[in-house]
Amino acid sequence: MTATPDDEAERFERSRAAEPCDTAGAKCTDVTLPARLRWLSTTLCGTTALVVLVAVVVVVATAPATAGLSAPYPESPIEPLGPNAVTAEPTAGDGPSDRTAINGSFVRPTYTGIAGDTVEIRYNDIDKKRYLLIGGNRLTDTGESVGYTDVVVLQPDSNNVTINTRLLGTDNSTAESCRDGGCNLDFRNEDGDPHDNVEDLSDLSGATGAGGLARPLVPERYRLAITNGTFVVEEPGVVTPVETAAQSDLLLTKPTFHDEVEVFTTSDSNDIEGEVDNESLSTLEQNGLDRTAVTKGDRVVLGFESTGIWGALSYFADKESLQAGQSIDPSVLSEFLRTENGVSLEVRQTNPGMNEPRSELELADVDPEDVTLLLADAEELETGDSTPGRFYLVLDTSDGGPFTEDPEPGDEFAVEFALEGAEGHRYAFADDDGDDEEPPAAFEQRLPAPDQFPYWETDDGTVSAEASFSIQERYFEYDHVTDDGELLVEASGGAVTGTTTILPPIEMSATFVDDKRDEPFRSESEVSLSDDGNFTIGADLGNADPGTRLNYELYDGTTLRDSRTVVVVDDTDDPDRLAIDSVPENVTVATGGNLSALGIGVRNAGGLEGAGTLALDVADGNLTTARELTLSSNGSRTVSFPSATVRLDPGEYPFTATLDGDQRNGTLVVAEDPARTTIDDDDGGADTNDSENSSSSGDDDENSTAIDTNSTGTDTDSTDTGGNTSDPTGDSGGQDGEDEPTTFLPFGIGTRETLIGTALVGAVHLLGHWV
Hints:
Blueprint: H1 5-18, H2 38-41, H3 46-61, E1 105-106, E2 110-114, E3 118-124, E4 130-137, E5 150-154, E6 160-164, E7 186-188, H4 205-208, E8 221-227, E9 230-235, E10 238-241, E11 244-253, E12 262-266, H5 281-286, E13 288-289, E14 293-295, E15 299-305, H6 310-316, E16 327-328, H7 330-339, E17 343-349, E18 371-376, E19 390-396, E20 412-419, E21 463-472, E22 476-478, E23 487-490, E24 495-500, E25 508-514, E26 521-529, E27 534-538, E28 549-556, E29 559-569, E30 578-582, E31 586-590, E32 594-604, E33 610-618, E34 623-631, E35 636-645, E36 651-659, E37 662-671, E38 678-679, E39 686-687, E40 705-708, E41 718-719, H8 751-759, E42 765-766, E43 769-770
Parallel strand pairs: 2-11, 7-9, 14-21, 23-29, 31-37, 34-40, 35-41
Antiparallel strand pairs: 1-3, 3-6, 4-5, 4-8, 8-11, 9-10, 12-13, 12-15, 15-19, 16-18, 17-20, 18-19, 20-21, 22-24, 24-27, 25-26, 25-28, 26-27, 28-29, 30-32, 32-35, 33-34, 33-36, 36-37, 38-39, 42-43
């Protein structure tokens, strides 16, 4: 039968009462030995006692490493013991056969984590309830003994326990800590007797150093041991497990911080079609855009990355640990920011108007429909195996949301997440009114002191991550419209295009209706939204010609969002373009006559009423003239130049007609005027074929240049009359191709005088032609 600590203590008391042999003049209990070996020495005497005692000493000195915390785990690198190492020795009894074997082993020789986060400790082979002793540090030795930080229950029906390192050693320690006195731990003095002053861990907080922690658990190496719940209190600061099954190490490192805030915008949850998890980060990313301009009514997503904060967040979420992919109540973050010293998060408007209140994020008592808090794995930082590294705030920008003032288009916001630190200071637990017997409160900082992140050192200052976003209107902006707001769509393969702040995916459609046809026409097209903010609406116009007008309506589901007129044009980039329809290859005019015979066909090729300048160039600039034109939709005309006088010698001259970039060529044939007679002073005769002086009877020899600015009529399929009063263009003179009666000038009046005289009244009537 195996002896228990109580049996050993009872035998120890009986042996002291009997006071056995004193052969050497001194009781066996006077032999200088470790206190726990006196349990055996007091029952032995004489030679036999010495032999047995030596054997026991040898057994103690050569006990297996797994019997105490002084030896590392077999797979761990061997390290020298520091003065704060927790040690353990086997329980003395009647012999090795009386000791109770403790089953249990650790999965890893060393568990790593980040100070302030949670760490999962996995173990095997626990056959009954055991206890995990979390011991003193190994890396930084202060010269003070630290016997333990906490004792946690290990259940046989589980193979893991999660340790919240932010709460270890405080009055809020989790993971079924034995601090509440419900573990039935057995405490002995150095003589193996029940300890008179220690009944549970709360009585040891000051003595062991747990209550005197200078600050939350520092980044160090700590001992782990699986024990049976019996401990020897040797001296202030040292608690030794009587039996251990296995041991390992817990290595905590300093927290790190990512100094960038992720910002993107995502659709309102009501705009996401189908049965999807709106609280999933992947869903938000799939239905969002990587931009900081947030459409009013949509949601802005802010992502933060840091370590050392997850233990506190877990505590306020009432969970042993938080996992990536979880969605938790946003009030958890609010309570965390309000309670944890040195951690701050602000979202505030930077451009409030004069005498207007500033809009700020208010997380207290928020509606979960307005704010979502999501957890995710770290991307930039290294974290523990199961600890998240990022959290996301999803904020609704609709009216009545989480902001103190409803965001409006044009509002700009700054975002700042910080772990605060003041150089020369370090976080420390409150003194708890000087009562060192109680563990410190987990979230009460010693005052007076500046706000300080619990894991920053004295040379650490504040680190922060900053970003910004703005609010913009929800709109559709079309690429091609008239000054009146009418949409322009090309007749061939046309589409309505533009930019929008509405995020994909969303079901929107457009209809095109023409009730003026013999059979009413109606078509419907889907709106295609792209990630770059552009949209396209395929337009089925039913083979409508340029100039046709249709009704256009834009729908969001069944809600009408816009209604306009669509004008079919040939080219949306040039919807009012005028074009040359026809030009004669050859046209003959008389020298000294006008260009009314040169008729050029023009038309409106755009679809909208357009204006342009028809320019004519003859003989590379020797004769130039122009006409200003205005044509209605689908209008066409024939335009000539009756006000342009031809002062070219007989011959053939190339000409070019140009209108809105359209250019055509032809040939102008200048012939002798058969009605003109030239008088030769030398022979006194008349030469009807001599035109040498036909253009030089007092005027300059330069060819004429004329611009007719009165041709602004909009008649369709009409012929320009070149200035006849019946022509709405206002050109003067007879219609093109129509001659006035011939009037002969008396020989006594020279041509020069005639030209000068008639020019004074605004026209010259010469040989039957107005010029």
